[in-house]
Design goal:
The chain is an alpha/beta fold. About 45% of the residues lie in helices and about 15% in strands. Strands 1, 2, 3, 4, 5, 6, 7, 8, 9 and 10 form a 10-stranded mixed sheet that branches. Helix 2 links the parallel strand 1 and strand 2. Helix 3 packs parallel to helix 4 and helix 6 crosses helix 7.
């Protein structure tokens, strides 16, 4: 009996030691996530990931004005000595640039199997998920009974010249993506001229989509183009605004996915893959929709919105000339 009790005691000590090692190992795991997503949104998802997996997240954020571009430049500068493991972007164009620069390594997550092919890289260098649409946000108090603008062309429409309007500077974030897609569907000259014409038509070029939202919500401008997350935040706050999806009777509105990629030669490769699996889960996408950050599921076959057709890779390629021309053309 005594020997049996000793045996049980030894087994319990062994199991306790093993359990302690597992807990210690889990506590020591971490992943460094660079993200251009607004901090109050990203933090909730990152905290949920930590609670579910036990992997500590070390986030790196950026400011609104430079947004994804600032983080992309940082990742390129760190390419030979990577400090991050994962890049979670709120748009796609800078992700394509990072792929071109060799910042990513391929990883094809099983969670991405239902995401449409046009929203993920064929080689697995990046994957898109959860879309936001470009929309018109309108101050109802200013426009009153006037016909609400509902097209990307309304920034240049003479009918609205007497109204102040706003759009984000097209060198950053989703407005840069919009510029690239315009240049694919139109031409470089036409895309640049659009922003020049908009500025000459009483449109302010401002530092970010949230600035557009705030200017419209406060009544400093009558309307502007922004993203659904910013626009619906104003609605939630009770501001006197209307949100209109662009060009639903015409070319359709641009739907921009979030993207995620695994950084090449990163320190925490396995933890990075676990994070990517988590962020691509339908449940995570549903959380982001519930939070109001995205409003379009890329895991859903149902399509209630007219998308602007585009090839993101083609829109991105050979556009150094476009960036130089738009920078020189706009007065700031």
């Amino acid at each position: 009996m005594k020997n049996f009790l000793i045996y049980i005691f030894v087994v319990l000590l062994f199991l306790s030691a093993c359990s302690g090692d597992v807990i210690k190992e889990s506590q020591n795991k971490e992943v460094v996530v660079y993200t251009s997503v607004d901090q109050h949104i990203a933090e909730e998802i990152l905290n949920d990931f930590e609670n579910e997996t036990g992997i500590k997240v070390l986030p790196v954020y950026d400011i609104e004005a430079s947004k994804t571009t600032g983080l992309a430049n940082r990742l390129i500068s760190e390419k030979d000595n990577p400090q991050g493991d994962v890049f979670w972007s709120s748009e796609i164009i800078m992700t394509l640039k990072l792929k071109e620069e060799g910042v990513f390594q391929p990883y094809k997550s099983e969670e991405a199997r239902n995401i449409p092919k046009s929203y993920k890289d064929n080689e697995g260098y990046w994957t898109g998920f959860g879309g936001r649409a470009r929309v018109m946000i309108v101050n109802k108090n200013i426009l009153g009974n006037e016909k609400y603008p509902n097209s990307v062309y309304d920034l240049t429409n003479e009918e609205y010249k007497d109204y102040k309007k706003a759009v984000a500077y097209p060198m950053f974030g989703t407005t840069l993506t919009h510029l690239y897609v315009m240049s694919q569907n139109w031409s470089i000259d036409e895309a640049v001229q659009y922003f020049v014409d908009a500025q000459e038509n009483n449109t302010l070029i401002v530092d970010g989509n949230s600035v557009v939202r705030d200017l419209v919500a406060s009544g400093e401008v009558a309307f502007g183009i922004t993203d659904t997350d910013d626009a619906f935040a104003a609605v939630k706050d009770g501001k006197p605004v209307e949100v209109i999806y662009l060009d639903q009777d015409g070319i359709g509105t641009l739907v921009i996915p979030n993207t995620v990629g695994l950084i090449n030669q990163c320190t925490n490769t396995e933890e990075g893959k676990i994070f990517i699996d988590y962020i691509l889960k339908k449940e995570t996408e549903d959380k982001l929709i519930k939070m109001g950050f995205i409003d379009i599921s890329l895991n859903n076959d149902k399509k209630d919105l007219e998308f602007l057709e585009c090839d993101f890779q083609m829109a991105y390629e050979n556009n150094d000339e476009l960036l130089e021309e738009i920078q020189n053309a706009l007065v700031r």
